[in-house]
Amino acid sequence: MNWKPYLKILICTIFLAAAFQLHAQEDRALSNLHWKQVSLSGNWQQLDSLPVFPGSISLHEQFEGAEIKIPFELQQGAIRFRESEITAQGDSIWVQFRSLPAIWEAPISRIDSQDITVGIETPMLVYDPFGTPDDPLLDFQGLNYRGNFTRGLAFGNNQSLVLNSSFNLQMAGYIGDGIEVSAAISDENIPIQPEGTTQQLNEFDRVYIQLRKDSTSLIAGDYDLLRPEGYFMNHYKRLQGLSIQSTGLEPGTGTLSLRGNVAISRGKFNRMQFAGQEGNQGPYRLNGRDGETFIIVLAGTEKVFIDGQLMERGLDRDYVINYNSGEITFMNRRLITKDLRIIIEFEYSDQNYLRWLYAAGADYQLEKTRFYLNAYSEQDSRSTVGDGALSEAEKEALRLAGDDPFSAVSSGIDSLLENSANPITYQLRDTLVNGTPYAGILIYQPDTTADLQLYTARFSDLGEGNGNYIRPATNANGVVFVWVAPDEAGNPQGRYEPVIRLVAPRQQQLFTAGFDHQFSKKSQFKGEVALSRNDLNRFSEQDRGDNIGMATYLGFERRFQLGQKWKLNSKVEHEAIHQNFSPLNPYRSPEFNRDWNLDQAQSAPEHWARAEFNLRRDSLNGQLNYRYNGFWKGQLYQGQRHIGNWKIQERGWLLDMTGDLLQSTGQAENSEYWRPQAQLERSFKALDDWKLGAVYQAERNTRTDAETDSLLASAFAFSVYRAYLESPEKEKFGSTLSIQYRTDEQGKGTGFQAFSRAIDSRIDGNWKPGKALRLGWQLHYRRLYLTDPPEGQAGRGDTYTGRTELGLNLLKDALRYSADYQLGSGQEQKVQFIYRAVNPGEGIYQHIDFNGDGIEQNDEFVIAPNQDQATHIRVIVYTNEFIRTNNVQLFQSLVINPRKPWFNETGIKGFLGRFSSQTNWQNNQKVRQLPGVSGWNPFQLALADTALVSSLSNLQQIVYFNQLDPVYGLQYNFTDNQNKTLLTTGFQGRRLVEHLFQLRLNLGKSNALQLRYAQGIKVNQQAGEVMQDYEIAFRRIAPEWSFLPSNDFRTILSYRYEQGADQLSGSDASALFHEGKLEVRYNQASTTFISGSFAFTRVNFTGVQDSAVGFALLEGLQNGNNFQWEVSIDRQLARNLRLSLSYEGRKTG
């Protein structure tokens, strides 16, 4: 028996188990040709767990049949079809594709990054042509792998011993007996999610190992579980665990595919639906299913719909999303208004319970028939994670709560424990307000040294008017809540309470079985039955009678050829749902409830029958469609819906007309919902295919009370008229111009009355006549009129979004200019910073008690100048306060390089060719929507604090002389960076202005001189905190000599003279620095790196050291003599093994 392959599998598994946290990269696999049958739907369907070559994909109606053309999207081996393009096709098609080799996605470089040594100013490459590679730590023949194993020690005279370690390994290849392995293994805990600003996401937080042999694959680690083929089961889960898939082909019979999953689910699903706010592009906050206010969205799991249309993620698309804060912002190309319906589906991190998931499935494919089974079970453990286990009282509250998710609460008040890390503390007191006694009121008490009984408290946001506490702006290092007395009627006037809303552990299961049979190429029959179990509270025995439900689906499709020119496609479907059936995630259209005027508050058995007929004649370039839908919900609701469409395209004309009528009756209301649409378009070939068109769209939803026959508040009507002029999309020019008029009505009494009217105009385009000029533009302007505006609100409002891009390339690339101007509107959220203590050296900030009261306050935390002093990290706490803003952004870049056209010139041209410059200016402003404040002008630099919400201005200019000359060169830098940020305590502003002159001179091969001179100002301003304000003027001169006797050795000797003084009136703070520093570096063929430095600094300081200006002037040093030294050794023991050792010392004052 050959045991070596199995030993290698065992070693790979051990490395996986050693990883502290699972993270991953994309799967890799062998190149191969595959056929797979997929359903025609708008959902993502996995073709293969390996990369799929996009150019190899072809679509076919039958296995090895004729190719058809349907638009599709491909992402990470999964395919999705556009719903608007698949109505006339069958329910499933065959996809032919090739999967790529496992090594295809591996990063490739010509040089090992370990052979690059970073110098003082520029990277230095060291290469030893006579060296021989060291023996690797891991040596698997047949495997391509990369990675490293590092262990390091750091210590000093002001810090304890710190052990640093890391292990990273990526590999792909064969380990014998036809077993292929691909893996990404790490022991680093990197809680990094990709930024949701691009259409494709680069994920950094995945680790996995995959083994494949023949048609069997095993994945352990991070992976995605996509929706299986079928009707009712819909999910997209991000998991950490084990997945196995196997496919077996029996000659003459069929193909059996099996799959199984055992994993921990990383999140849970939620669907949010809300109306847009007029002129507010966001950010909009996403909330959890159980009322969680602040959540972390799992990257890539979101689906965003506007008016039922699926949006695309990206800065140049429809929206961007911040996964870590759970906020979504819509881009300028789509103006958000009150008329838009926004639906967002997503998975978010569950921080209450450990959630286990088990999923299995089987598919048996015959020549014309397919059978399948799917089983899914997801359940929370009864033990909580995070802050601690549930108490017996909390478990009892959950037992009594049943299926009511908001009835189980517990007290958030707890006694102060010893050694608590700077908690926010309270006293419990009784008080009397207007003769009414109130007991057990929490009063903020920051002094923890007093002899008082103190408490800590956790608060929940219950909504405005549902709590007795508010969240005022304070300077405390934490969130403080203050009690406010109820009004005279006894109604609460706050929104917070010291209670903890208990979340019950759940269990959700779904089992499906189905088949589909292909009678011929033109007919197909399919069916599915599903059984669900949904336990909303595993602690409670109450309300368990509604946990189990069933559902069935039947569908038949037939295509007819009527003569030689006419074709008829027909489809009949029926869906029956038990009142207790609970799908995993919604499987129907996002706007299903709106289409049928449904109220989901009451449950009842459901029946949905639909029939569709599509008649078309290819020679007429047109088609005729009719769809009938009937929906019955027990005795509560009965509705019938008729949809007709006629589309014809001939001789440059396009006519598309649709009518949609819903008639429903119910116990509470009756409705008639009429939705006509029409489009007429003319294409002019004589004008290079320019298009002129008009669109009409209307909705009239007459919803009446079943008893009084009067219109309900939910009744509405609107009409939209739009005209457009559109050019064909070409490389050099493209443009679209449109204008739209909309009227809205609302139900009142027995009729409709006007509510609002709006005029929208929009222009988009691009122009690129040649290489020298590129221009793009986009502007959307809207004016809204309210017929009867609320008191205090204007009857007219203007909103707009826009973007202009300009690019110039002149004088043979000697002058390059680019500009990007954007404007829009949105909202800015007030935030608060909280500083949390960590182990010394692991943070970024340190605390300086400026006022000497022994209490940590927000404005007493500064960036630590030395790593061993970094004892705190900063955490952002979001509030529920938003400010409506107008936003404007401007970015400009100018590069002047006469050297390109005048490279070989002499005289004045040759002299000017030695100069070059680069200027970048970025200016972002968010201002309040106030009279006299422009929302489109980026040059408003002197706005009052009452008008400004936030601003960021960065200006950097660099002028070079002899930039590429190896002997000498001059450089001038000008920097002006300023920003203002809105905190809960007011504005915080900073500014840095600096002029820097630099001279470099190379004296032969071994000696180099540099001279730097800088002067400028540093400004800090904080609202309400005068002691934190300063304006430091500084001057600095720093010569430096470098000696390089060989490529392995470098010595640097430098001196720094610097003066700094506070310019604010009444301040006498100043500092004078004399610093000498010696640095030595030794690098031997990338295997050994040794560096050391010693610095002596003499500081003459005047003023108060324990103050904000004193800390800024001293830069972490003390008045008097200061010594600093550092030694580090880095040794590569093997190709994949590196050892590092560092020592830091400091003696100040």
Report on this structure.
By secondary structure, the chain is mostly beta strands. Among the domains are: 32-100, no CATH class; 267-349, no CATH class; 409-501, no CATH class. 4% of the residues lie in helices and 56% in strands. It contains five helices and 65 strands. The strands form twelve sheets. It has a 37-stranded mixed β-barrel. Strands 1-7-3-4 form a four-stranded antiparallel β-sheet, with no helix packed on it. A hairpin with a 2-residue loop joins strand 36 and strand 37. The longest helix has 15 residues, at 4-18. It starts with a helix and ends with a strand. 23% of the residues are buried. Mean pLDDT is 84; it is low at 1-31 and 102-135.
Strand content: over 45%
Distance between the termini: 72 Å
Number of strands: 65
Low-pLDDT segments: 1-31, 102-135
Main sheet characteristics: 37 strands, mixed, barrel
Provide the gyration radius in Å: 34 Å
Helix content: under 10%
The coarse overall form would be globular
Total count of helical runs of at least 4 residues: 5
The class by helix and strand makeup works out as: mainly beta
Provide mean pLDDT, rounded.
Answer: 84
